[in-house]
Inverse folding.
């Protein structure tokens, strides 16, 4: 009986670990209408890394109506987008090695997707972060907010003890 209870407790613990991991994985879609399906992403402070998958649900090819997902501090978006336009599609409309870009996917066309995994070590609760499409002309309407929440002491302890 005790072995069964111990096994059940282990299953619950493993399941809880999976739940924590799931809250650090996001999916965002965008398409030919030049907008993301989500306006805000809330990242728990317990997430040490975030995995974000961007999926283009439209029909147009990347060279016609390509989209990507780029994360930066809100104050840097305009400058990154303008530099990205000059960089061109071959560089995913992103300036090469730009330290202001926190995370970014490649430009994808209709039916395609890309996933980026990034550390939250540099994110700060209360800081203003924007995600946007850096394709020329898209960034002013195809954008959203990323909110990084402070971790509770209990969740932080559970995350770091693994």
């Amino acid at each position: 009986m005790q072995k069964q209870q111990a096994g059940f407790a282990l299953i619950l613990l493993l399941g809880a670990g999976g739940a924590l991991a799931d809250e650090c994985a996001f999916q965002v879609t965008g398409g030919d209408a030049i907008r993301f399906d989500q306006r805000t992403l809330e990242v728990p402070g317990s997430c040490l890394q975030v995995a974000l998958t961007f999926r283009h649900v439209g029909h147009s090819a990347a060279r016609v109506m390509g989209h990507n997902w780029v994360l930066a501090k809100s104050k840097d978006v305009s400058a990154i987008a303008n530099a990205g336009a000059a960089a061109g599609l071959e560089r995913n409309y992103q300036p090469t090695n730009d330290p202001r870009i926190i995370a970014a996917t490649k430009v994808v066309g209709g039916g395609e997707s890309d996933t980026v995994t990034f550390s939250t070590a540099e994110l700060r609760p209360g800081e203003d972060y924007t995600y946007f499409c850096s394709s020329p002309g898209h960034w002013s309407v195809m954008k959203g907010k990323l909110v990084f929440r402070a971790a509770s002491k209990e969740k932080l302890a559970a995350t770091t003890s693994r």
About this structure: The mean pLDDT is 86.
